[in-house]
Design brief:
4-stranded antiparallel sheet, Immunoglobulin-like, 2 domains, mainly beta, 203 residues, 6-stranded mixed sheet, 3% helix
Length: 203
């Protein structure tokens, strides 16, 4: 089989409405680093984001619009989503044969637990004090209840170096909307909030 290439599509102008302010994400070429990745990406960095009107459940409305790709493959669309409630990881540690991760759960206005994504990566500390990754990064989907207890044996069997010096835990809470977008088919629009902490794995 021939090599496959992942092409990032030019979807036209990308606008994000936050409260009373509209942000326009800039379009740039994907860096020529990986031979199988090409196309464009949208990036916007802003330390002056507006204060949002938060709903009773802790979420905030956001509207995402695109003008559509120049060749018409992806048609214009506008979709309304919710920025998830502010996410904060509080603790991660290994005790006996399990990894326990704690975070602030969503507020009382949320009807039932949703799902969050955990990314686990172990690091080894070199003699010069620099940390480098060990083993594989593991991704887990867990209920958004405020705590997850994960057995070490299946994590190690999937490639996580549970005996390393340091563990990085990254987590995200998200909202997803799906819609038809012309000849391109169905698309997903994802709004995500992330948090990261580091923990010693000594146990």
């Amino acid at each position: 089989a021939g090599d496959r290439e992942l092409s990032m599509l030019d979807a036209g102008d990308l606008r994000i409405q936050l409260g009373g302010r509209e942000l326009v994400a800039g379009l740039s070429l994907v860096p020529d680093i990986l031979p199988w990745l090409a196309g464009v990406e949208y990036v916007h960095v802003d330390d002056r984001l507006p204060r949002l009107a938060v709903d009773p459940d802790g979420t905030a409305p956001v509207v995402v619009s695109i003008d559509g790709s120049p060749d018409g493959t992806l048609e214009p669309f506008t979709v309304a989503l919710s920025i998830p409630e502010a996410f904060r990881l509080e603790n991660a540690g290994i005790d006996d044969d399990s990894l326990t991760v704690d975070w602030r759960p969503p507020g009382r206005g949320v009807a039932g637990p949703g799902t969050i994504v955990l990314h686990l990566q172990a690091f080894a500390t070199l003699p010069d004090g620099v940390s480098e990754p060990r083993g594989e990064e593991i991704t887990c989907l867990v209920a958004d209840t405020g705590q997850a207890a994960l057995a070490l044996s299946p994590l190690a069997g999937s490639g996580l170096a549970v005996d390393a010096d340091l563990l990085r835990v990254s987590a995200s809470r998200f909202d997803v909307a799906r819609m038809a977008a012309g000849a391109f088919g169905e698309v997903e629009v994802i709004v995500e909030l992330r948090g990261t902490l580091y923990s010693s794995t000594s146990h």
